[in-house]
Amino acid sequence: MTALRVRGLRVRFGAAEVVAGLDLDLAAGTVTGLIGPNGAGKTTALEAISGLVPAAAGEITLGGARIEHLAPHRRARLGLARTFQAQELFEDLTVAENLQVAGGAGAGDDRLPSTLTHAERSVLAMDRAVARGDARVLLLDEPAAGLDDAGREGLARRLRDLAAGGTAVLLVDHDMRLVLDVCDRVTVLDAGRVIAEGPPAEVRADPEVVAAYLGRGDPASPRPAPAAAGATLLDAKGLRAGYAGVPVVHGLDLTVAAGEVVALLGLNGAGKTTALLALAGVLPRMGGAVTILGSETTRPDRLARLGMACVRQGQAPFAGLTVAEHLRLVGGDVDRLPALEPLLDRPATVLSGGEQRMLALAMALAAKPKILLVDELTLGLAPQVVERLLATVRQLADEGAGVLMVEQHLPLALATADRGYVMERGRITAEGTAVDLRAGMAETGVLPI
Length: 449
Prior knowledge:
- This protein is of the alpha/beta class.
- Helices cover 32% and strands 28% of the residues.
- Strands 6-7-8-3-9-10 form a six-stranded mixed sheet, sandwiched between helices. It has a six-stranded mixed sheet with strand order 15-16-17-13-18-19, with helices on both faces. The protein has a four-stranded antiparallel sheet with strand order 2-1-4-5, covered by helices on one side.
C-alpha cells in the first residue's frame, strides 16, 4: 500500500528551481533512500513535503488524502513525521520530557540531551518524531551524520524496526553504506532532478549516478600536480577538536602553503567543518599545535589582523543592512563577484543561503587575506555562479594567498584545488594531489557523498 505519493513536486527560490518535478512512491513498511550530491535539493524536498517551504507545483498524497495545501501541523496530525539535520531537541527538557512533549509516554529517563552521546541524540530525535505511535511516514534528514560504526548499526536496526511496524521511511543521508544496507529502493537527485531510481545495488552502479558524484568530464579534469609550494602559511599537527568535551576531530595533520588551494573532503559528518572552525579559532581546540601565518594564537581577531579570513556556513549577515552597506563596512566591492551586483539594494537577510555565502566571500576578499578558510562555498548556488566563485578562489591563490576549502562536491573541489585531504570519522584517511585523489576514488568506486 502506498503511504506517500509525490507527483511533479517543484520548489523555487527566486529564479532558481531547486526541486524540478520530483516523483516519489513510498510503500508502507519500506525504507526509501533519497540521495544526491550536496546541494541536489534533498533537504528542500523534505521541507516541501512536510510543508515548511512552499511548493511551486505538485501533488502530495498521504494515505490517500491530498495534503499539499495543508499547514505543517495538520500534515503531522495525519501521520507525517520528520527529523532535522540539527536534531532540534529541547535541551532543557529530559529525555522523557522530550518524548512526552511529542505525545509519547516517556520512559522515565531523566537525563538531559546534553549528556547523551551523538548516537543517542540521533535516536532520541527519531523516537520523538514517532512518539505518538501514529506515524504513517517518517522523513529523516541526515540521521547518520557523525555516527561511528556502532551508532550506524544501531540506527540501521531502528530503521528496520520502524519499517517492520508498517511505517514508510524516507531517508536522506550521505552514508552510502547505511543506504545500501537498509533501503529497499533509492531515488537519486542531481541539481533538483531525478537521475536514477531503483534497488540500491542497481542505483549504485548506474553510470549517471557515478557521473553525478565523480564528475562528467575527462578524468584528467582535476588540476595537474602543483608546482613547488611556497612558504607554509598554515601548519596543523595532531589537532583535536569537538563539542562538550567530546572530540570529533582526532589528530589532524594538515598544511596549506602560499599559492595553493587545498581541499578538505569527506562525507557529511566526517569532521571537516569542525576542523575548519578549530583552525580558525572559532571553536576551542582540545589538543595539538596549529601555526597560522607564523603565530600560534587561537584568537580569531588576532588571526584576522595577521591576514586570515574565514567564510563559514550559517554566517548570518547584519539585520537591517543591504548588500551594498555590508560591502561599504569593509571597503569591498563586486569587482570579483559581479553576481552580487543585482543584489546590492536588497536586505542581506533576505538573500538565499548561497547568496549570503557569496556576500561573505566578497567581504573576506576585501581584507586581501594572506590565507582564506572557506566552508561549503558552492552549496545552493547555480552552476554558472559556482564557476565564477571558484575561479575567484583560484585567482586568489594564483596571486600568492593560501586557501583551505572544505567542500563536499568532489568534481568542483578537485578541479579547483592543487591537492587535498580526505576525512572519515574525524581522521585523515587519504591525501595527495587532485589528480591522485580523483584517480583513487574512481578506481575504488568510492562515492564521497
